[in-house]
Structure formats: structure tokens, C-alpha cells
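User: Major facilitator superfamily (MFS) profile domain-containing protein, Pieris macdunnoughi:
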Amino acid sequence: MRTLKGWSGAAALSAFHQALVVILINIPSVSFGLALGWVSLVSGEAADEGDKGAVFAAVTTFLACFVAVPISAKVITYGRKYAVMAASACFVLCWSLKLVSVSASDGWMIGGRLAAGFGGTAAWTLAPLLAREMCSEGWCGAAVSALPLAHNAGILLMYLAADARMHHRTVIWWCLGVSAFHFFVFMFIPESPSFLAAKGKNEEARRSLAWLRGRSTDSPKLDAEFKTLPPAEQGDESSLSRALDLFRDRQRRWAFAVGFVAVVGQEMCGILAITQYAERLFMLTRDRAAAVTIAAAPEGPLLLATPARHALILGAVQLLASALSLYLVERLGRRPLIVGCAWAVGLSLGGAAGAVWAGKAEGAAVAVALAVAVDAAGLQAAPYALFSDMFAYEYRGCATMLMMAGACLGNAIEVVMFPAVVVHSGVAASLLTAAALTLAYAIFATIAVPETRLKTPEQIYDVICPATSQCHSVRVSNKLKSGTRGEKHSVCTSF
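Assistant: Predicted structure for Major facilitator superfamily (MFS) profile domain-containing protein:
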């Protein structure tokens, strides 16, 4: 009985420590969500610049994210812990510059956007890495999925601040306080045990692992997990040589290609643009509905009268669905969520386009909310969990940086492309474009994306591109050989 109680106490302490780590490594992601929400609101940072100002602000931030990728790659070589603190330092700088810009020139505001981009890259890169390295196997998928949840929480908090009509200076002070507090608190969090082991600091790695698992350093129950930590690195390998080594192996090369498209394709499907310009989107939808309603019945009521409140509801729906994804990504697995949610999001966006074209504002709002909810419940989080499963410690950081570069560039293109389509062809055409891109992504996911939950990278590689296969392609299905019970062969196809 005493042993059972001791085990339960250690398990509870381990759960608390891991949950605390997951929360703290995602605070910079909350700050990035706050920054993006701040520039997206009609009454926010770009209020005086109009719609073009909102697009310029978003593009500036995401291009800064892209530029920051090689810098982040260098920073994480000095330690995951210090890189997370550097991310919060970027947001301290971001909000400080924006605080100055309230009573000064716009140059300070642009500097704040650039700082937010640098911090955002670090946040979205480090959170999946640390979640994978510091959490136990049963927690990894949910821990990685907490990244979109934190980001969406930041956006919703900014929507709430706007709905409460808080003064700009007050909002910025609160955001600055969050980043400064996180910078101080994270000093007391241990370094990643995987990073310490890779640097040959085995004693420190064991102490870090013991703290995360709620046990003493001499506990024999740590031995099995300690042996799974990466071996000490031989010399300092440059990022370029690590990237070349990543692509030198055919199986890793194909795994990276599948994971890269899974993440970047999801980022470019249009949901980001919808949430980034949600208030403006609902304003345009209301105007379209008003035109159709007046043409049909001049005395008819105008629907969707409060776009800001609809954007707030959309943010709340997205946050709740993101919380659900923490459960679904481990319960259902990565592939079912990606494939099922991609089809559902694409069809919902197509329905929203039809509703806008028909002047059904409320129907369009419901369809958009459904698309955002389904995206947040699985499609937003599962690709990141899948990607983190695909690589061992040696290549995970390099692969994540390359993936993040593609995601940042894709985000920058998306926040320009969709407003351009709206200007030239209308909201319905923009939603239809998003639907087409998402359905194309759904076809790819159905064909090429494997299940990665509870599988080693080698097992995943054998599913994507078997080592014995002579075709340089991706395996998309397994079928039983006729007449041979229990044996499988692979069917390969290029994509």
C-alpha cells in the first residue's frame, strides 16, 4: 500500500511538473497571438491605417518570422531554456516599442512588429521541440498540440480586450507584464534533459529528468527513460551540415517532404487569414447580405449587425475546439484527425462561399465558425504532432527550423493573397479559394500522410518509404498478399 501511494504521489507530481512546463513553454505563443490579434482588429493597432494597414502589419510580422528562422536555429544551440527566455525578451521589446509608439512616430510600431515576428518564430519552434523532449511518451502529442491552443488563447484575449473597450495603453501594459513575468519565472525551470545529455552533461540531465518525473535522482525507475536520451554529440556540427545530413538519407528525405507539406499546407489553407481578418470579413459579409436583402425586400432586416461580436464568438469557438484537440490527438491519432478535418474544413468553407454568394450572412457565419472549429479541433494541431514524431533528437531541431521557414513564408503569402482575392473578386471568391486549397490538401493527406502516434521514426519511415523498396516514392496503403495470410506488401506511388 505504501508503494502504491508513493507511485501515485510521483505520478501526480510528474503530471503537475509536465503540465507546468507545457504552460510555460507556450506563454510566448500566447504573446504572439496577442500581437496578431492586436493588428487584426479594426479598432486595434492598424486602426488609423485602414484595411491596407492591417495587411501590411500582418505581412511585416510574418516576414520577420521568416528572417528570424536562422537566428533561432543558432540560439537553440546554446540551450532550449535560454532560447525560450529570448523569445519572451523579444515580446518585452515588442510591447515596449508599441508603448512608445502610442505617443511617438509609427517607426516604433514597425519595430514592435518586427520584434513580435522574431519572438513568434522562437515560440512556434521551441514549444514543439521542448514538448517532445521534456514530456513523457503518453503526453507528447497533447503537449505539442497545446501550441495552437496557446496561440488561439492570445487572439481571443485581445478580442475580449477590444470588446471591453480597454484603452490601447492599458492593453499594451498588460501584454508587457505577461512577457516580463514569464521571462523571470522561466529562469527557475530546468533545461531539457535531452539537450543536456546531447552536450555530455549526464548528471544535470538526470536531475532535470528526475524533476520532470517527480522522482529522486537515484530512483531506479528513471534508468529506463534515461537510457533513451540521446548520446553525447561528437563536436559541434553546423546547421548546414546537419541539414545536408538530414536530406542525405532517402527515408528521412521523404518523411520530411510529407511532414513539410502536412504542416505548411495546413498553414496556407485560409483559416489563418479568416481569423486574422475576422472582424473585417464579417463586416464585408454583412454588407453583401445587406445588398441582397435590400434588393429582395427593401424593408427587410439587416443581419450580422455586430461583426466585432461575431469575431469574438469565432475566437471563443476556436479556443474551445483547440482545447478538445489535446484529447483527440492522442485518442484518435494524427492521421484520422488530419484527413477527416481537412475534408470537413474544405466542405465547410465551400458552404460558406455559397452562403455569401446567396446573401445568407448568418449561414455564412455558421459555416465559417464550423470550419474554424474543425480546423482547431484537429487540423491545426495534428500536423505539428505528426512532424515532431518523425525525427529523432539529432535531426528534430533542424527539421523543425526548415519547416518553420516554410510555414512563415506561407503565412506571409496567405495574409496577402486572400485580401487581394477579396478586393478583386469578393468574399465568396476568397472563401472558395480557401475551400479549393483545403480540399487539395485533403486529397494529399488521404494519399500520403501516415499514422505516427506511438511509433519510432524508423517505423514511420518504413511506412512512408520502405528501406527495401526500389521506388523513390511514398507508400500509401498496405494490402494482404493473396494466398499468404498475415504478410503485407507495400503499394508505392509518387506524389
